[in-house]
């Protein structure tokens, strides 16, 4: 179906209506529209109000016994009545985000091959699966996808692409990683109003090295191990070429690739493709933003901070580089001076140049050369040696910030900054409750997955933990990027997005010492992030969009972002909207 006016005399309109998850809105369709669309008899005669339709969906959601059941229900809803799904999500963001996204999306990915057929009507694609054995058939694959679209004119403008090799902190999940691009793109729609018809989840099936899946009879991916690097990079190259040939100027988000590949792909493509890496740049920006606000609360000079990272994968190094820029841009340090504020550690201890093992390439940048032969083998030793003001966890090791570690941070600092950022919550380095209990409630805290609020025993004081998840950045960044159409995404644009997020706290949020705004304000925050990104794209001379080029100031850019956000249908008038 196209945006052309509907030919109401053509009975085939019924077929489209019944099968289109975007157009078909089920029981709210008013009687006169049902008559026009030849839907009489295909629905029970009662016409729902929008409120009742949503209340029924919420009721069904809440009776589901497990979070995975809720995930399956919501996926089905999205794939059969998309407008209702997004209404429900937007009206219940705090309840539903943890189901369609971290942490439950992690549980869903672990089970993806077991639940996939129950997420959508048979044959309806939830995204594109590209097998490494199909590299000669990429044109056929993209053509098939275009033919499957409800509205072929509305080609994808944004894709999230993974090869499933490092899904959250869960490891190599192979084709089961598809849940992540699907979840991320749902947040692009909910949090920043990207048009859901123009989002494309892609899972590259390059095999898996996880034995459990290779032996699982129900696994739906290729039963082969992953290729060597040379073949991997050549395969991704082919996909990038075909993808951008079929969908020119599509915005490409790399997601959950194993660390080495993540850095190399970003390095390889960032100067000639319209792309960014969410785990390196998105997580980096969101933590930078929380860190800017944490520094304001910690009460010591920014340049006196000493930052210890536990975990040195794509997210760890990405975040450290982003924080480094803060010291350079805001405090005038040289790169070398800024770098010295950071210590990184991994499973083998503090990362130093003379540790005696061969460091992975991405770890070399922050490896210390001023340790005078000192090596620390475990986290507690490292803390004693570094005396950090901030401890940031991105190692996916549950509980590694234990009582002893947290006690030590509290002994060293009046207001220790502790960010256990690994996802999902089961992989977090500590819980909010642990962090409070073992620091005399003095901790400045943010985690990757939301933890429950904590009431200090014997008081009425309840603290809400910050959620330093890249969901505060990537949707607004994607909105800004699809509007400004920059040639490339520059570091300064990512920095501008982070600063906009830090500045987006309102007075009420500041009064509670929040590091991040309330999730319920995510659309407002995304407008701030999008406008800042457009502004910086103009300043960097990379914005190609003529409208954005013509907008005189940030207020006009904000307005432009706001009016371009897609929202689900909430009135009967817009049920067939522009198509009448
Ligand atoms: O998906 C999330 O919650 C954040 C993220 O990118 C990751 O942990 O890889
Ligand atoms: Mg990720």
UniProtKB/TrEMBL annotation:
Domain Malic enzyme N-terminal: from-to ranges: 78-270
Keywords recorded for this protein, A-Z: Metal-binding, Oxidoreductase
Binding sites annotated in the UniProt record for (S)-malate: 166, 423, 469
Binding residues for a divalent metal cation: 255-256, 279
UniProt cofactor note: Divalent metal cations. Prefers magnesium or manganese.
Requisite cofactors: Mn(2+); Mg(2+)
Family: Belongs to the malic enzymes family.
Annotated PANTHER family: MALIC ENZYME-RELATED, NADP-DEPENDENT MALIC ENZYME
Name under which the protein is recorded: Malic enzyme
Organism: Dimargaris verticillata
